[in-house]
Task: structure prediction
Amino acid sequence: LFQKFPFVKKKIRVVTNQNTLKETIIPELKAWLPHEDLGRYETKNSSHPYEYEWKFDTGWTLTMLTYDQDITKHESATASIILMDEPPPHPIYTANISRLRLGGLCIILATPLKGSAWMYDDIVTNIDPESPTSYRFIDVESACKEHGVRGYLEHDQIVKMASQYPAEERKARLFGEFMELQGLVFKTFDRQTNVRPTRYYDPNDWITIFSYDTHPRVEDHMTWVSFNRQGLGI
Result:
């Protein structure tokens, strides 16, 4: 890919959570790259609390953004490679896809936990043969020293981790399956609490209205109201 780079811009954008940038990605980059004092690259914060821009003597530029930044920060620039770590919010994803207007690649590396349902709908179940998207599920044993290829995790440690995962997260963390497809749609549903026995009233004498209001930023809300023939409500 890099020896015969087919795209116009030599620009890479990394997008993830701020803690991941500061605690994992940036330290790893500094461990991999030649020391900055050798003049092979220089970094700038540009008012960010981390090294936002990396310019290399090869002509490549690397910039880093986070999911909690305003979506306007993800607009405008043109890039050739977008690397996203963990499931991005859908508006952030679409804003970054637009950055590839001159051609490029977007790669998402993610454990599909809460917030990844749109990825299942848009990518996994997108069977349009003209679609440029593709996906692959990777299980944790692929990183096992004993059972994987070039693995780095001890098998005993994988077993210990797996035993501590909540049941509804286990398939996502171990096999890369989407958590939204596991267990209950409404995780706190309890039949004893949320189901009203019909013996309390005659359904022929009551009208029941139920509404469910979803929201992207606050908790969902549900409303349940019943009226009898005399107009009395509960």
Summary: The chain has a mean pLDDT of 85. Helices lie at 18-32, 90-97, 117-124, 155-164, 167-175, 191-194. The chain has six helices and eight strands. The first helix runs from residue 18 to 32.
